[in-house]
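Model the whole thing, not chain by chain.
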Amino acid sequence: MDGVRRGLAAAAALITASGLLAACSANADSGKPELVWYINPDSGGQAAVAKKCSTDDYTITTQVLPQDANQQRIQLARRLAAGDSSIDIMSIDPPYTAEFANAGYLADIPEDLQGKLKDQSFKGATDAATWDGKLVVAPFWSNTQVLWYRKSFVEKAGIDMTKPVTWDQIIDAASKNDGKVAVQANKYEGYVVWINSLIAGAGGEIATDTDKGVDLTLGLDSEAGEKAAGVIEKLAHSKAAPPDLSVSQEGQAGATFGSAQGAFLTNWTYIWTNYDSTQPEVKKDIGYTRYPQTVAGEDSRPPYGGIGIGVSSHSAHVDEAMKAVECLTSPESQGINAEMTGNMPASSAGYDYPALAKIYPEDLLQLFQDSLDAAAPRTVTPYWSDISGGIQSTWHPPASVNSSTPKESQSFIDEVLHGKRLL
Amino acid sequence: MSTTTAGRPGKVVASDRAKAENRLGLKLVAPAVVVMLVVTAYPMIQALYLSLYRYRLTTPDDKEFVGLSNYLTILSDSLFWQDTVNTVIIMIVTVAIELVIGFAFAMVMHRIVFARGAIRTSILIPYGIITVVSAFAWQFTFSINNGWVNSWFAWLPWIGPDTNWFGEHWPAMFAIMVSEIWKTTPFMALLLLAGLSQVSEDMIEAAKVDGATWWQRLWKVILPNMRAAIMVAVLFRALDAFRIFDNIFVMTRGAQDTESSSFLTYRQVIEQFQLGLGSALSVLLFLTVLLLAWLIVKLFRVDLAQARGEG
């Protein structure tokens, strides 16, 4: 009986193995390469673009990465470090671009394509995609945050939203009128996005001299850092803080904004269509303006997010993949993706895609583009994950932030970068 | 398991035939030993080797031999000690509570007369659920937005609709421990049930005839006779609890200082790509588990042979 079973198992294993081999060789022999594009999860935009850009010479198929940006980075980096050739094209979150490029995971983009991408993209998008003087990924979509507010609340509180507002103003207004200011302050990358914008809005920068590797210059322990800490401290200890502040990500913040106490929200562009089917009454009540100022009178620097598309240096089809990337990041493709996902184009030409004008009011589309022009990308350095992790460790929970946080945070990150501390 | 005829070494002089059988036995197990070494020893040696380097996966050119400096960095870092303390607290609290509840469950499963199968199965269900799934379930349970803990227990003075369980250290630790206890108490109950069924009914009967109360029978007859089973259960669960990871990963991601030792190791190796520091941490984790197992076996004088029913 056991013998029979073992024989069956062996036969099954053989059949499976030969099937796999057959599948591999079929791909290799057909002459039409399959380019595998690892994408971040979305509502179908990237898959649609992949279909559109497939040609007689190659087909582009998509594989979905984990939801969390850091998990996407982990999966891609571990496979690329092992020389996995099954990845041809990948969607990369901007803070990790430099790390991948520096490690040699990304194939060089041809000069002429670099020029074309630079010409069409927003400055913020180009900056975030550049490492060591070269464009290492193709900007695909660019995201930015604006200040969303509830018109009814603002009316009740009597604030003039036509002029630039500061964090102080919205926190005070919400505290006095029983409203909440929803932000992203869980212990994750989204919290660092907020901190980065607060610091940049006060004229500072988290890190400079990035070409020096771990010896880069940190700018947390500065006046700008203290201003940023001041805003977080004030919100965390005010009545305007949502009870779930310390665990809030984009979704929780969106829910707070949609609740009866919702007043202000800083969040990405897709919030505009977030309540369409679930809370149409909230949708009608949404107003929007430029990201709040850290320091009164100084222009705010909204967060920059998005996706750049890179080609793996281990891919067997680099040339085809480059052609595919050119198509995937064309303004039209960016428009199609934006229409389906709410993730806005990385180029102003992409904003001309007709369908977008039907979904978004003209002034909102203009606001997105102005915000992108003014956006402050997170520091482009291969060591961003250490810096970000260090900030998350020292600035979380928000209620623990005070005037000494920037200084402590800076010395902690410095020790982490030099391998003297655990993160 | 084994039924070798060789007898105990040193006591019996082996015959030629026995020696030949031994040699044959060695040859037969050799492939398995080689596979075991490749699978278990190789990664351990690799970890030991890597732990002597400063080595980051994404900057392979900066690989540098640093000797024991990784260990020094770790042992002098407050984060390491804080995470170790967290892990020990989780281990002691969960094992203690599980021992009590698990024993109660074991008694129920042992003595139950009607619907025995159904009740035994329902007690064991949590253990059949994947830890990640149970962690998500408990995260939703304690969630400030849609969990039922805040509404069901609103009558307690310190719980309200705005109680953010994952917003502070101790409430977050509490939630993590609750999920761990819920998940693994059945395992404890199962181990104790095995011990309970080994206690001779005659002894309990004799104690009854002598006029011992239920309480006396429990403390003087049942528990002493179950000592080996209890200690094995404690040993297994303590080592299991010491490597707690999934619940923390799902519920807090280590926020509010709820990290455990294995979570710290995970973050260094997987998230930070710090192969050197991470390997040093995993070596330390391995040594700690070894020490822990040795301590429990020594302290409670667990006779594993007896527990296996060989004694």
